[in-house]
Design goal:
By secondary structure, the protein is α/β, with parallel strands linked by helices. It has 15 helices and 24 strands. The structure holds flavin-adenine dinucleotide. The site of flavin-adenine dinucleotide has 41 residues, from α1 and α15.
Amino acid sequence: MHNIERDVVIIGAGPSGMTAAHELKKSGLSVAVIEARDRVGGRTWSDTIDGAWLEIGGQWVSPDQTALIGLLDELGLDTYSRYRDGESIYVAPDGTRTRYTGEMFPVSAETEAAMNKLIDTLDALAAQMDPEKPWEHPAARELDIISFHHWLRTQSTDEEACNNIGLFIAGGMLTKPAHAFSALQAVFMASSAGSFSNLVDDNFILDKRVIGGMQGVSLKLAEKLGADVILNSPARTVRWSEVDGDYRVTVVSDNATVTAKRVVMAVPPNLYSRVSFDPPLPRRQHQMHQHQSLGLVIKVHAVYETPFWRKDGLSGTGFSASSLVQEVYDNTNHEDPRGTLVGFVSDEKADYAFTLTAEQRKKEITASLAQFLGAEAAEPVVYYESDWGSEEWTRGAYASSYDLGGLHRYGPDQLTPVGPIHWSCSDLAAEGYQHVDGAVRMGQFTAAKLLAELK
Ligand SMILES: Cc1cc2nc3c(=O)[nH]c(=O)nc-3n(C[C@H](O)[C@H](O)[C@H](O)COP(=O)(O)OP(=O)(O)OC[C@H]3O[C@@H](n4cnc5c(N)ncnc54)[C@H](O)[C@@H]3O)c2cc1C
């Protein structure tokens, strides 16, 4: 057990905590990063499973994610484009499979018109929003007290259009059913990504991947931080006091006790209550954190001897709001002769999938992949499910969002420090919300705040 003294102690070695530590250290402050797991990277994790190299967590980068892109440049990490040549597949609610090109699903003219109208309305609402302050949107309360599911149906009577548009935010991003979060939360998701149209455009939002893996960001930062990163050491207690305006905070973790001037909680909000705070957090924090929860998604990796779908003129991209796998993409690694598909089974479909035995789940999920890309897709040589819901130090994926009404009610206070305690994670980001870019932005923002206070 070490007893150490630093300017700032950071709890959580995900991209947000590691970025904050890096920025603070570059500017001359001393830091320690306390991490519960035996590795850095948090929800980014690149590893070899059964001989296949996989991105188990976060992986894609979009062109607007400039904070992440800047950090990749600084760390000397290169990117490559997702394979997207050829036709995509849409599976309609009646199970019909259609090949198509472009962004619009091959739906009837009426459904297409209804989808375009919903996209325009969501773009207009997102354009009125400052992602730093979604609660200041002119219709914030009105949008926050209705579920996204019901709001869509106030705008359109076309059920297929509502489900398809719902998919981009519900299954696709927040990984909760559209009835479980508000229309304001949906508009915020769009505004954080620049527009709703950006979320519909998979070529934009799922543009590039990092050669060597997204976890490389945290691994490279860990090389720079050296012994300042302490692994296998869950933080258990944050104790603090103030004497003559100076804070003194002590973080007790399994392998180190760190005394510092400030502490950064760089963990998702659903995990704050895993730490005991002394004195206890204020009432508003206690309440707020109970209204923020992670979604649930199974990221399915299926590896084949070759990317066989390309021969058939298919990009590997497929969408269906009604299938078990709702989205599928070619996820073949850089310069890898084998082909990899990645599919997503989200929210209530993930609940269902987890009621099955592992064998039955694989059978149903690969059958769903085959519905998009043909019978060969049902026979991967390597099959793996990223199951972040059962990871003790995450408990869901991809990130957290507020329940109905929570965003406008608590959002204004989500970044308010409590004494020496600051909050930093992708779940609290404005731009890049839920994404690695948001984690990096929050790390940089928190470091800048602390530098202003401490230097
Ligand atoms: C399956 C999946 C797919 C995703 N896909 C993408 C994508 O394609 N593109 C994208 O940009 N984003 C994606 N994301 C989201 C992205 O990975 C996260 O937004 C990002 O990693 C969040 O970073 P963070 O530092 O805020 O939190 P985290 O990465 O969660 O890091 C928090 C760290 O805190 C640690 N911790 C928790 N409690 C304690 C404690 N008490 N003491 C010490 N340590 C603690 C955890 O172990 C963890 O290492 C995906 C996420 C998942 C899970």
